[in-house]
Amino acid sequence: MNRLNQLFNEKNKDLLSVYFTAGYPDLNNTVAIAEALEKAGADFLEIGFPYSDPVADGPVIQHSSQVALDAGMTLNLLFEQLGELRQRVTIPIILMGYANPMVQYGVERFCQKAAEVGVDGVIVPDLPMYEYEMLYKDVFAKYNISNIFLVTPQTSEERIRKIDGLSNSFIYLLSSASITGKALQLNDQVDTYFARIKAMELKNPTIVGFGIADSKAFKKACEYNNGAIVGTAFVKFLGSTPDYLKGISEYVKGLKE
Amino acid sequence: MKYSVNEQGYYGDFGGAYIPEMLYPNIEELRQQYNAITNDPAYKAEFDALLKDYVGRPSPLYLAKRLSEKYGANIYLKREDLNHTGSHKINNAIGQILLAERLGKKRIIAETGAGQHGVATATVCALKGIECVVYMGEIDMERQAPNVARMKMLGAKVVPATSGSRTLKDATNEAMRDWINNPLDTHYIIGSVVGPYPYPEMVARFQSIISLETKKQLLEQTGNELPDYALACVGGGSNAMGMFYHFLDDESVKLIAVEAAGLGVDSGHSAATSVLGKEGVLHGSRTILMQTDDGQVIEPYSISAGLDYPGIGPQHAHLHKVKRAEYVSITDDEALNAGLLLSQLEGIIPAIESAHAFAYLEKMTFKPGDNVVVCLSGRGDKDLDTYIKHFGY
User: Fold this and answer.
1) Which of B119, B121, B132, B113 is nearest to B170 (CA)?
2) Cis link prior to B198 (omega < 30° from 0)?
3) What is the ipTM of this complex?
4) Which residue range is the domain that position A168 belongs to?
5) Is A243 a residue whose pLDDT tops 70?
6) Where is the Tryptophan synthase beta chain-like PALP domain (chain B) (predicted)?
7) Is residue A182 part of a domain?
8) What is the number of helices (H) and of strands (E) in chain A?
9) What is the pLDDT of residues B280-313, one digit of tens each?
10) Is residue A1 part of a domain?
11) What pTM was computed for the model?
12) Closest residue of A to B177, CA-based?
């Protein structure tokens, strides 16, 4: 059982996850940001490994990736930085990025290294279910790394059931079919969508991402789901706050109030 | 056919559909419907009629006598430059707009490099009265200003891609983002044999008219439907795939794909993907692409905006790997000189993309009587500024 499963066994509601891009805004603060987020009360974290062509991301996260790449962030460096992570951080860690850097690194080597440095799961939005099943499922299982699938309002029930069957940690529920950074619309459609998924009684917890920017959106997501992920809004905060390590505690408090 | 796609969308090790879940319904809809729609007799009849009366097909196969004399072989030009809108791109745009119409889509998006595909898409959208948004790299908008004006005149909205290298790769990213944000009413007309399955296969089929006609025309003109060589330039590779398509299983036909070396393959300013690239995933498929050891896409360079792309289509990657086609490269200067040569020997000013294919003739040796077909994929009007600057006219 990895840390994600342990977390969901111990706590299954109002879970807060925070996303940030490794190497942004400062190349060597990846672990320090993670540590500050844990202290501030985040339940688990998503650390983005930057990619030059992130098609599922909006301008804010794309910019953060470019800044990190320009500063010299690589997968090798990220794994090096994460080497000390488990001495300072205990909450589950998920790496989020795109297929090509992972494929270049070598999927087995990637999973082995991720497991070594204490990573619990991976989100790769452009790695679809078919390719995962055909090419990578056994490798992920060998190293006990969870692959987390996305579900959108357009995903069919049949496909959600299949994703539920293939998942062993949680399902990443997109608040809308869009790139990152579009604010969650608090309307009937969202309620209907969340209620529809809840009624399916999936075996995996559902965590909502994309568009969760404040406590209002966080609460709405948690009404129907096990928790939510804040990404673009936090990356914006990092980019606009000079002493961001000190400000993280207040920021996270603001999301939960 | 030996080199075709399999049921899962792979050409050997390449292809597939590496797309975020947000695009899955769109891609699945296309995958399930495109065969049925394109095989429908009413679709075929409309497609054929538009190709004939609107595009002006069949495009001629022209025996270029002075060029033939120069190279000591029979050099035939497949005149895609004579198509309406001035390039092969219209073949695919017609095919896809009819498909989008039957899928009930109300909005079209496209990406464009040189503007040829953007103009073709804006044209078919005007023809059908469908809203059109074209993404184009900011740099390409500057160097291909006449095509930007054409698209606007045709009623399309041209949106600059301002990220990355501000060229074709980034325009493609922006178009994919638009599609993710507008999954229900929008169809993305991809302009090359790239992208997630079924796009590479679909675009290749729409462009296969090039080799289908060539076979027939060669038979009429030479008594043999098979040439000794078929040459075409390759960015993503749609005109090349159209030129190769019906010759793939005729192993006697040597297929030559000409990439853009830019300032030279080793100069750090190149788009010669098959030489500089490695296997990876870009824009929805597993293919060969130019990238760092860390899997970051390297920004390509070519004087030709249409060849300025860091990858090639997955079928090309397969043909390269199994050595069915030969992938070579030509520098900016070589291409511009070949463009000038074709202008002065045959009275045809080619697009700089196509000029890359012609430049490779200089590097080949022929037996007397060899039949060589070169895909003249586009006309050079859009590139006049570049020619003028280079030659100082």
Assistant:
1) B113
2) yes
3) 0.93
4) 13-256
5) yes
6) 56-378
7) yes
8) 14, 9
9) 999 999 999 999 999 999 989 999 988 989 999 9
10) no
11) 0.95
12) A55
